[in-house]
Design goal:
This protein has about 425 residues and is α/β, with parallel strands linked by helices. It has two domains: about 280 residues, Alkaline Phosphatase, subunit A; about 110 residues, Alpha-Beta Plaits. The chain has 13 helices and 14 strands. Strands 10-9-11-1-12-13-2-14 form an eight-stranded mixed β-sheet, with helices on both faces. The longest helix is centred in the C-terminal third of the chain and has 21 residues. The two termini are about 15 Å apart. The structure holds 1-O-phosphono-alpha-D-ribofuranose and manganese (II) ion (2 copies). 1-O-phosphono-alpha-D-ribofuranose binds next to strand 5. Keywords: Cytoplasm, Isomerase, Manganese, Metal-binding. It is found in: Cytoplasm. This is Phosphopentomutase. One of its GO terms (molecular function) is phosphopentomutase activity.
Length: about 425
């Protein structure tokens, strides 16, 4: 029986990308920065304080189960330093490595597609201007085709800050808030009740078509609720409209060549433009995503790949530059790992990894170019180092080998 599970901790980089300087990210290290802040007492949530997802914490970073899988060994190999306040465990049960990205961008689709064996070697389109970011003809076409009274934003922004600034005007005028970032994205925020969720999705579909000539990786619907700038909050109804990967991923190959099952949990299906996905499960929040992953594992048959994206690390904490919240979310995730490890059957393959970094101590609010952890257990792998992996695609190639599909064009299997 062949069953694999890939858990993507969105933005959980472990530093040390050889080309970080080209992105202005030299020294960025998501795990290392969090561990340092925790060790220095700068990431405590105490006296009733909780993170935006309801966790509290204090003191040095506590990730005993990820440590046993080899997380801190991989981080040491990636950066040359043991993470602050950490000591390496004596016993490691996982096979661990650190992988560098060969895709041109440090965005979510590039990272995920490369993980699935298809790196993005072309350049995405970007909206580089921080104000008046979108070409006027694009804005005019969107307003006309989506029948809008106008748009707000039209700038680079953090998605939570712009709700504070423009949320009320949006509710008053019915103009959606359109914004972008250093990523190849066109994001549209609108109130779920005043504007309507389905209406927002329709506008996004119009935008997706209009943005094809601009080579923009994703349009993202950002629905929110609330009445005032202080209580506007984004909901779990986010939807990503990605373009289709440029070649068949290992997900496609498993589904078509092996008639396998590919189960998407969270935003995985959206990121792969629904290509190669045979079942979609939605859940909101790290715990609910973890529950869904366990439930799918419990009923998974032969030739099944379960892939989960844990978006909150990135969206609720990395981009928000919330170190304590990120640390608390990692610790909560770590506490769930024993349940998963005990649910695995002997020949199952579990892989924990990430799609890019988003160092919460770094200037700005963008992703950071980093290496990602590759933590594996099962499928006959012996515990110990997998070394430096030259591309995230080593994961896709390993999955191709595990499931017996035709090989991927990129990557070297570690199986
Ligand atoms: O600030 P928010 O809306 O979370 O935006 C972030 O989310 C987008 C997708 O990951 C990125 O482009 C990044 O800028
Ligand atoms: Mn991501
Ligand atoms: Mn992100």
């Amino acid at each position: 029986m062949k069953r694999a599970m890939v858990l993507v901790l969105d933005s959980f980089g472990i530093g040390g990308a050889p080309d970080a300087a080209e992105f202005g990210d030299q020294g960025a290290d998501t795990l290392g920065s969090i561990a340092l802040a925790c060790a220095e007492g700068r990431a405590d949530l105490i006296n009733g304080d909780v993170s935006s997802t309801g966790n509290s914490r204090r003191g040095p970073l506590m990730l005993p189960n990820l440590a046993k899988l080899g997380l801190f060994h991989a981080h040491l190999a990636s950066t040359g330093q043991v993470a602050a306040g950490m000591s390496l465990p004596d016993t490691v049960i996982g096979s661990y490595g650190h992988a560098q990205e060969i895709s041109s961008g440090k965005d979510t689709p590039s990272g995920h597609w490369e993980l699935a064996g298809v790196p993005v070697l072309f350049d995405w389109g970007y909206f580089l201007e921080t104000e008046h970011s979108f070409p006027s003809s694009l804005v005019a076409d969107l307003i006309a085709q989506a029948k809008l009274p106008g748009i707000l934003g039209n700038c680079h922004a953090s998605g939570t800050t712009i709700l504070e600034q423009l949320g009320e005007e949006h509710v008053r005028t019915g103009q959606p808030i359109c914004y972008t970032s250093a990523d190849s994205v066109f994001q549209i925020a609108a109130h779920e009740q005043h504007f309507g969720l389905e209406r927002l999705y329709e506008v996004c579909e119009v935008a997706r078509e209009l943005l094809m000539p601009y080579n923009i990786a994703r349009v993202i619907a950002r629905p929110f609720l609330g009445q005032t700038p202080t209580d506007f909050a984004r909901t779990g109804n986010r939807r990503d409209y990605s373009i289709t990967p440029p070649a068949p991923t290992v997900l496609d190959k498993l589904a078509t060549e092996r008639q396998g099952q590919v189960v998407s949990i969270g935003k995985i299906a959206d990121i792969y433009a629904h290509s190669g996905i045979t079942k979609k499960v939605k859940a909101t929040g790290t715990n609910a995503l973890f529950d869904a992953s366990l439930a799918e594992l419990a009923c998974a048959g032969d030739n099944t790949l379960i892939m989960t994206n844990f978006v909150d690390f990135d969206s609720s904490f990395g981009h928000r530059r919330d170190i304590a919240g990120y640390a608390a979310e990692l610790e909560a995730f770590d506490r769930r790992l024993p349940e998963l490890l005990s649910a695995l059957k002997p020949n199952d393959l579990l892989i924990l990894t990430a799609d890019h970094g988003c160092d919460p101590s770094w200037p700005g609010t963008e992703h950071t170019r980093e290496q990602v952890p590759v933590l594996c257990i099962g499928a006959g792998l012996t515990a110990g180092s997998l070394g430096q992996r030259d591309t995230f695609a080593d994961i896709g190639q390993s999955l191709a080998q595990y499931f017996g599909t035709s090989p991927m064009d990129y990557g070297t299997s570690f199986l």
